[in-house]
Amino acid sequence: MIKNKFLKIGNEELWLLHANVEQELKNRGLVRTRNMVGERGEFIVIEFFNKTKGLPNLQAAPQGTQNVDAISKKGERYSIKTITFPNTTTGVFHDFGEKDDIKLPDKKFEYVIIVQLNKDYTPNKIIELSWDLFLKYKKWHKRMRAWNLSITQNLLKDASIIFEKK
Within its chain, how far is the Cα of 92 from the centroid? Predict the structure, then answer.
């Protein structure tokens, strides 16, 4: 078992191994940044959509594109948020206005995809929300002064469950 092999590795050697794995993931084009959880989620979504009949083909958005992580061949924009199980709250969405703004924000994307990963980085659930559902379920994160989403039973009833681990 792999876990037992790590017990024999010293602390500094383990950090070096981690750095080497991170570099190899970059070399293979599996990650573009140091945000491993977010990168893993984006990779899973793009690969899953491209392999699944009936779902649009996606490609990664240019690095640095705010709030958009993937684009379909039709030009539909996807924001992908990744959380690890059992967490149910996404990271934040920036530049969508303040909590008390009356005016709706300009449409930044067509869909939000929430990927919930297990501790071993395998997908537990992939959830899709339209822009309108995003607006309905977004919650204000006071400390970050931005919006996020929480996976609630009501959200799950309205959203499309693209994948769920059995």
Answer: 11
User: Distance between CA atoms of 31 and 150, rounded to whole angstroms?
Assistant: 26
* Nearest of 138, 72, 137, 153 to residue 110 by alpha carbon: 72
pTM: 0.88
Residues in a beta bridge with 79? 112
Whole-Å CA distances, 22 to 9, 19, 35, 148, 160: 18, 5, 10, 28, 33
CA separation for the pair 46, 38 (Å, rounded): 12
Phi/psi for 9 (5° steps) reads: -95, 135
Other C-beta atoms within 10 Å of 38: how many? Answer: 19
Residue 121 burial (CB < 10 Å; 0-12/13-18/19+)? middle
Q: What would the pLDDT profile of 29-50 be if each residue is shown by its tens digit?
A: 888 888 889 999 999 999 999 9
Give the CATH class of 36-164: alpha beta
**What six digits make up the tokens of 87?**
């967490």
Angle 36-51/11-27 helices, nearest 10 degrees? 40
Q: What is the mean pLDDT of the chain?
A: 91
